[in-house]
Amino acid sequence: MIKLITISSACLALTLTACSKEQTAELVQSDTDNATEQSQTLRIAAAANLSDVLPEIIAAYQADKTPPAQAIDVTYASSGKLYAQITSGAPYDIFLSANQEFPAKLAKEKLDNAKSADEATHESFTYTQGQLALYSVNKSLKGLNTTTLNALLMSESDSKITIANPELAPYGKSAQAYLQSQNIFDTLTEQSRIIQAENIGQAFQYAHTGNVDYGFVAQSQLTAIKATPEQFYTLAPDAYPPILQDGLVISDTTAATDFSNYLRSPAGQQYFSDAGYLAIE
């Protein structure tokens, strides 16, 4: 009987040792996985109009984390160009567009290409709404309204007006839609007065450097430089198609989901409001 008890005790000790080693291995693997994810850089593809506000949001997000959040790398370009890069395999974790169309298309494509029904996919989300403004460093825009704005643009036959590429940049698309709704886009085009920029960032540079007389730009860009009242006119939000800006989490990393949630949090939304965007519900 004593021998049996001794053997049973030995077997129990071996079993507990094996379990302990297995649990330790699982914990080590879990810690390794967490450390690996923490050390990886979070890659964000962001619309050009976000270049002024996103760095502040990222800094606040990283400062709010304990331990500090992982490194974040941002590529700014037109939404259409970023969409093309992502569909070609660019390794981004989050796509922040200046419209709703590109994230929705990308989400559908990812769902259609999912290898199984269980494969994780994400839905697009709205994180802010942009405002369109006319900007000039050459001419005073003080006291303008819709009627006088159209008269101003049409009366100066030699003035140049820049808009972002409507095919790639949502701000350019809304600017074109506004000019068309006022029945002046075709005339301006025929007079070769519209200078097309690749994205909203380039459109702002054309106007800011005085290379063109007027530029349809993002209100956030003007807020960032503290433009004076006579330098810009903010168009009424109902005067052009809403510039609802959507995003999409592309990868399955925890950090990508966490950052996208921060964008929509009260703290994240306050940064957008302060930067010249409209609040989202």
Would you mind describing this structure in some detail?
With 281 residues, the chain is an alpha/beta fold. The protein has two domains: 38-129 and 246-274, D-Maltodextrin-Binding Protein, domain 2 (3-Layer(aba) Sandwich); 130-239, D-Maltodextrin-Binding Protein, domain 2, CATH 3.40.190. It is 47% helix and 17% strand. The protein contains eleven helices and ten strands. The protein has helices at 2-39, 54-63, 79-87, 101-112, 146-155, 170-181, 185-190, 200-208, 219-225, 254-264, 266-274, and strands spanning 42-47, 72-77, 94-96, 125-130, 132-135, 161-164, 194-197, 214-218, 232-234, 243-249.
**How many helices does DSSP assign?**
11
Question: Can you summarize the main beta sheet?
Answer: 5 strands, mixed
| Spatial sequence of strands, sheet with the most strands | 2-1-3-10-4
The global form is globular
Strand fraction equals 15-25%
Order of helices and strands: HEHEHEHEEHEHHEHEHEEHH
CATH architecture of the largest domain: 3-Layer(aba) Sandwich
Attribute tags:
281 residues, alpha/beta, D-Maltodextrin-Binding Protein, domain 2, five-stranded mixed β-sheet, 11 helices, 10 strands, 47% helix, 17% strand, globular, disordered N terminus
